[in-house]
From TrEMBL:
Residues 21-40, 56-95 are annotated as: Disordered. Belongs to the small leucine-rich proteoglycan (SLRP) family. SLRP class III subfamily. The gene is OPTC. InterPro entries: Leu-rich_rpt (IPR001611), Leu-rich_rpt_typical-subtyp (IPR003591), LRR_dom_sf (IPR032675), Mimecan/Epiphycan/Opticin (IPR043547). This is Opticin. It comes from Vicugna pacos. SMART domains: LRR_TYP. It is found in: Secreted, Extracellular space, Extracellular matrix. Keywords: Disulfide bond, Extracellular matrix, Glycoprotein, Leucine-rich repeat, Repeat, Secreted, Signal. GO terms for cellular component: extracellular matrix; extracellular space.
Length: 321
């Protein structure tokens, strides 16, 4: 390469190096000028915002309304979808109640013209006629051994009500309004062991079968004159005699040796005989079975009859002062 050409090239390179700072200085000035403009704009914006702060910000009324969850009316009221779609004014259909059945047959209305086992409930040898407004003893199957006709309106027991019922063992007529029992109504029942008649209106006792073991006539209107003399002597199997809450003024006697419990509380008894419980001539004899005698609620003073208890295993319950 020739020397003059080399020198001219070197001069050109030096000129470019000198001119570069001037261009950069110009670009820097342009950048600084832009930043100054933006700072000026920011200062102006601050003044504008400061001026706008003197005005209240408008409030959207919808922002103040409470937000409600989107639950359906049916779920809030506990109604099912099927119920909520029911037309207004349409009555709900009432549930159908099945009528009770007896022995697989629908139970008809109570009527005395119907067979007993359609009016009452017959289970084997037991007949249940409780609380069905009976006014008399219904005809019973010949195989009846247990009759329950409590809480009715039966007023009397006739001689033919139990005719032919040779297997009848227990009669429970509690809480009726029975005021009379014909003499032949019960004494011809050879298998009868229990006669339950509390809460009735009996003033007298009928003749009883010899095999009876339990007689319950509490809460009646029974009077001493309504019990036949020696009415219990022949009842050699009688164990429980309940005569409480009546109008008795004396203790019925003689009492069978089989007796285990005698309840006479809340009557009008004022006195007793020496031989009511014990035989005065047999001081060695004891009545070991008769352990439960109740005379409380009577006006009698039991301490006045000390010699009447020597054969008893326990003293009667009652007033001793």
């Amino acid at each position: 390469m020739k020397p003059p050409a080399f020198l001219s090239l070197l001069v050109l390179m030096l000129q470019g190096a000198v001119s570069l700072p001037e261009e950069e200085r110009g670009s820097r000035e342009g950048q600084l000028g832009g930043e100054g403009d933006s700072n000026t704009a920011l200062r102006l914006g601050d003044r504008v915002l400061a001026n706008l702060s003197h005005y209240d910000e408008p409030v959207d009324s919808e922002d103040q309304l409470p937000k409600v969850k989107g639950t359906s009316l049916a779920s809030s009221t506990g109604m099912s979808s099927a119920q909520s779609t029911r037309a207004p004014g349409t009555a709900l259909s009432s549930p159908t109640v099945a009528r009770p059945t007896v022995l697989g047959l629908p139970a008809p209305p109570i009527s005395h013209g119907l067979p007993t086992c359609l009016v009452c409930v017959c289970l084997g040898s037991s007949v249940y006629c409780d609380d069905i407004d009976l006014e008399s003893i219904p005809p019973l199957p010949q195989t009846t051994a247990y009759l329950y006709a409590r809480f009715n309106r039966i007023s009397r027991i006739r001689a033919g009500d139990f005719r032919g019922l040779t297997k009848l063992k227990r009669i429970d007529l509690s809480s009726n309004v029975i005021s009379s029992i014909e003499d032949n109504a019960l004494c011809l029942l050879p298998a009868l062991k229990g006669l339950i008649l509390p809460e009735n209106q009996l003033a007298a006792l009928p003749a009883l079968p010899a095999g009876i073991e339990v007689l319950d006539v509490r809460r009646n209107r029974l009077q001493s004159s309504g019990i036949q003399p020696e009415a219990f002597r022949a009842l050699e199997k009688l164990q429980f005699l309940y005569l409480a809450d009546n109008l008795l003024d004396s203790i019925p006697r003689p009492l069978p040796l089989s007796l285990r419990s005698l309840h006479l509380q809340n009557n009008l008894i004022e006195t007793m005989q020496r031989d009511t419980f014990c035989d005065p001539e047999e001081h060695k004899h004891t009545r070991r079975r008769l352990e439960d005698i109740r005379l409380d609620g009577n006006p009698i003073n039991l301490s006045l009859f000390a010699s009447a208890y020597f054969c008893l295993p326990r003293l009667p319950v009652g007033r001793f002062t």
